[in-house]
Amino acid sequence: MVGKIGPALDALTRRITARKGDDPESSYTAKLLSDGREKCAKKLGEEGVEAALAGAKGDRKELVAESADVFYHLAVLLEANGASFDDVADELDRRAGVSGIAEKASRKRR
């Protein structure tokens, strides 16, 4: 599935990078980043729970909206940690062709 997600995530990343230095009083992105990694992580966790609950309820529209929030907050947290969706893509490529069970077991040994 190629779809539109790649270009959408690229555009999202560019917007977050561009707003990083904005005034935190006028930019939610700048505010999150200025509040630090822990705040960014907390927001991602909250949005992840909301997406999970929407999925559990079977509410497609809410799940899509909450998933967009998850992607946004994940992009902010990645930025706050000097990481990117390209780094995530590299990790997914590394895992390709490896059983999920085997991959998870290898993380326990690291």
Automatic annotation (TrEMBL):
GO MF annotations in UniProt: phosphoribosyl-ATP diphosphatase activity
Segments passing through the bilayer: none
EC number(s) per entry: 3.6.1.31
Phylogenetic placement of the source organism: Bacteria, Pseudomonadati, Pseudomonadota, Alphaproteobacteria, Parvularculales
UniProt record similarity statement: Belongs to the PRA-PH family.
PANTHER family: HISTIDINE BIOSYNTHESIS BIFUNCTIONAL PROTEIN, HISTIDINE BIOSYNTHESIS BIFUNCTIONAL PROTEIN HISIE
Primary site of residence: cytoplasm
Keyword Cytoplasm assigned: yes
Pathway the protein contributes to: Amino-acid biosynthesis; L-histidine biosynthesis; L-histidine from 5-phospho-alpha-D-ribose 1-diphosphate: step 2/9
Keyword ATP-binding: yes
Species annotation: Parvularcula lutaonensis
Keyword annotations: Amino-acid biosynthesis, ATP-binding, Cytoplasm, Histidine biosynthesis, Hydrolase, Nucleotide-binding
Catalytic activity field: 1-(5-phospho-beta-D-ribosyl)-ATP + H2O = 1-(5-phospho-beta-D-ribosyl)-5'-AMP + diphosphate + H(+)
Full protein name: Phosphoribosyl-ATP pyrophosphatase
Location of this chain's protein in the cell: Cytoplasm
